[in-house]
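Lab notebook, bench 4. We co-purified these components, and the gel suggests they stay together. Before we commit to crystallization screens, I want a quick structural picture of the whole thing.
Request: model the full complex, all chains together.
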Amino acid sequence: MAAIQFANVSFRWGAEPILADLTLTVEPGEFLAVVGPSGCGKSTLLQLLAGLVDPQAGRIRVGGRAVEGPGHVALMPQRDALLPWRTVRENGALLLELQGVPRREALWRVDQSLERLGLEGWGDAYPGALSGGMRQRVAFLRTILTGQSVLLLDEPFGALDALTRLQLQEWLVQLWEQERQTVLFITHDVEEALLLADRVLLMGARGTGRYRLQSVPLARPRGRATLADPAFGRLKAELLADLLQPEGAWRS
Amino acid sequence: MTQSSLGAPKPSRRPPRLRQATEILIAVVLILLLWEGAVRWLQIKPYLLPAPSAIWQTGWESRRYLAQHLLATLQTTVTGFGAALGLAGLLALAMHWAPPVARILQPLTVVSQTLPTAITAPLLLIWVGFSFTTKVVAAVLNAFFPILVALYDGLRRPDPDAALLFAAAGASRWQRFWKLELPGAVPALLSGMRVGMVSALTGAVVGEWIVGKDGLGFWAKSMASQLETAETFAAVGLTSLLGITLYLLLGLIERFLLAWQRPQTHR
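Here is the predicted assembly.
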């Protein structure tokens, strides 16, 4: 059974088409990156999956069940959205609390995972005391603790400096290669998409609703060495050429 | 994974509070010295402008009266502030939970705020009479608006990313209120309370002025009418000190409640 399924999905904001007849299947344990220029509808895709908006046409299924309202995927929003008045532990426990897990048990589950995520010793710190990279780890911890099989990550590393970003990309790819959740990862960075994903969904410019799927046959485990792989360079050039093409020349 | 680069906490940048306090103190002392010198050298008549030393001496001699009036003002201010906090809290919650209430009340509260207490207080005199209640009501009228606006705005403006997080998780309205909106509004509420406290003091003094029984406002007015200028100054100075003390006290509470805001980082 597919983890995520879009069947002929169309979506418009007013008269402007955002998605046109999108059909897409994501297998369980697949890492799909979504790349496209600003305003192409990446965030709309995410809102559709999260059940926050409904498509005008087509069907969306998550884990075989039709999406009817929110609460069935784990979302990690842009920036970290940590609540500044909650400690690292309390932030980690937030989504569990929203699911109705008693607070003590939620905190206990957070404590079991702090070390695995490189957050040991930081449980009682407030987000204001953390670096940007640490904050993203807390946000990621909060996301995976929901126990949802589908993770939606919306440009999680977009606000970080280049070095911290690479460190976190390596960290994420390591974690994911062990856990193999289904991930839909939104980014505007082609390199990031190729470093992390099994397949890339390229989205056309705003208003075209066009898209193309590209598989990424690079060896795993991946890391900074992947960046020097000639195949990586070729794929990157190809994807960039597509993204930078004028509207009419888009091939699908 | 390396801890060193990712795990380093940002160093806190605290303003050098002690230095700032010292600078203010020096400035105040300088002004007082200049004042004292000017009054002595220019031989200004004491009923026009008494010297700081004279004010101090007069104030010390009448300390029992001043203490009594200070206590009255403090009582009115704190009671008025407390009532304003309760009233503003209830109204803000009602406006937040029931948008029609907000649509009706918002313009009304603005109108109520454009009326200075000095104008409405005589009306209170007619309705409530020469009593403690009149003074308290004057304080409430002054204090409740800044608290209401701060809390209502604070409740309505949670971080959009956090709001998206709650929405995608399928959080109930109730969960959103308790875990996102209410804690998120605390900083705004506290700064509203600071402003409200000072406004309550202003309202209380105006009320005392009009009711005319006790309190620093009453004392300053009656002393001024007898050309006891030094005594008036003493009452004015005490009122100012009271306001500053109450303001700083709330600041302390704020520092305690918002411990998570320190150390600050930029995002």
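Chain B has eleven helices and no strands. Worth comparing against the SEC data before the next meeting. Chain B touches chain A at residues 1-3, 5-10, 159, 161-162, 164-171, 175, 179-180, 183-184, 186, 258-265, 267 (CB under 8 Å).
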